[in-house]
Amino acid sequence: MNISESLFERAKQLIPGGVNSPVRAFRSVGGTPFFTKRASGSRLTTADDQELIDYVCTWGPAIHGHDHPVIREAIADALSHGTSFGTPGPLEVEMAELIVELVPSVEKVRMCNSGTEATMSAIRLARGFTGRDKIIKFAGCYHGHVDSLLVKAGSGALTLGNPDSAGVPASLAAETIVLPYNDLDAVASVLASSPNEIAALIVEPYPANCGLILPLPGYLDGLRKLCSEHGVVLIFDEVMTGFRLSSGGVQKLTGITPDLTALGKIIGGGLPVGAFGGKEEIMNHLAPLGPVYQAGTLSGNPLAMAAGIASLKLLKKTDPYDRLDSMGQELARGLKRMAEDRGIPLQVPQVGSMYCLFFTEEPVTEFEQAVGAKHKHFNAFFHECLKRGIYLPPSSYETCFISNSHSEEDIAKTLEIFEHSFSSFC
Ligand code: KE4
């Protein structure tokens, strides 16, 4: 038994499934998860000293790579002033100014501690603002483990085969309407048949929790128009895409502005941070100004703010998006060529530093198609890559991430390992 295996045996005695987040357990790809003892740049070092080129990037936050010196120094500097105050602090103002400056929809913002808190609070705020109860979400989209949103959810819920989690009262789930992504008519007909009942429509503008799915032309614009027509709060869940695809997320790339935006991951620089923001008229319904309650002991924590501010300022300074996109294109091109050379049906949707592998004939535009892909082929490819030193997300319902610390040599080595991995598993 190696060190990771023995750690996992101990962990399983103490933590459900041996993990603090289900997708880490390798349940869909099989095998024993490795434990990480160090992360730096584009690399993870396992408890057994295997070095891996990392395409999970701690599920998105590490856009600059792991343990970036600028972020580490910012945390160390903040640490010298204390770890938590429980009062307002200057770094919270600086973080709010950065988010308002960078994210087109955000006029006011509230910090919290995770993406889940961000989406949960945004839903509650939309319900409080409109006085309506129902919400629309899309099959396969994952918005964190919020009761109202664990209905046909993606990511770990889908990976483990429980997209509709136990423990969510049927009476609450009934307030959530689940529609297929990329189908505007479905949204239009629900809105027409339920006038004044829908509080919000929440969407990952580029769904990345059932693999990566891109919107058909006009789709996001159509959602914007329909929500405006029907007084429905349009919420972009940009926990993953915010600051990942541009300094203003998908809404900056597309020019489509939601009413509220949920953020997380990158804005914490690797520490626990979430945020939600949007129109001042809506945000002012939040306590202590308005009737919608939301709170958090560690919201705006100074260490987390310091890490997040450093991360966002580094993005402004380095503007890595073109470089990240060209690395993404190179990997996607290589994967498609390798599959074609071997007659393997493979789709590799890619945008910026995000890409995924669907082992299927046709391009995937919605959830059912993602479910229909050959997941066992992904699982085999995952393990062939892992044993050669490449760490892809341990589920075909996730998305790969590239960081700005990935070098051209990393990409070349990755393509070489992909080539060998394809040969072994075919
Ligand atoms: P957290 O509560 O995990 O910080 O964020 C929830 C969340 C909300 N919205 C989107 C679009 C997300 O992708 C997430 C979380 N993403 C998953 C990975 N697909 C986190 C990994 C995990 O659950 O361990």
**Which secondary-structure class do the elements indicate?**
alpha/beta
Order of helices and strands: HEEEHHEHEHHEHEHEHEEHHHEEHHEEH
Number of helices: 15
Q: What is the CA-atom radius of gyration, in angstroms?
A: 21 Å
Provide a brief overview of the structure.
The protein has 426 residues and is α/β, with parallel strands linked by helices. Helices cover 39% and strands 13% of the residues. Strands 4-10-9-8-7-5-6 form a seven-stranded mixed β-sheet, with helices on both faces. A four-stranded mixed β-sheet has the order 1-2-3-13. The protein has a three-stranded antiparallel β-sheet with strand order 11-12-14, with helices on one face.
Give an overview in words:
This protein has helices at 3-14, 69-79, 90-102, 115-130, 155-159, 170-173, 184-193, 219-230, 249-254, 280-283, 302-318, 321-341, 367-371, 375-387, 408-425, and strands spanning 36-40, 43-46, 51-54, 108-112, 134-138, 176-179, 198-203, 233-237, 260-263, 274-278, 350-351, 354-355, 390-391, 400-401. The chain is α/β, with parallel strands linked by helices and 426 residues long. It has a domain at 70-317: Type I PLP-dependent aspartate aminotransferase-like (Major domain) (Aspartate Aminotransferase, domain 2, 3-Layer(aba) Sandwich). Strands 4-10-9-8-7-5-6 form a seven-stranded mixed sheet, sandwiched between helices. The protein has a four-stranded mixed sheet with strand order 1-2-3-13. Helix 12 (321-341) packs parallel to helix 15 and helix 14 (375-387) packs across helix 15 (408-425). The protein binds ligand KE4. Ligand KE4 is lined by residues 21, 23, 59, 114-116, 119, 142-144, 155-156, 204, 209, 237, 239-240, 264, 398.
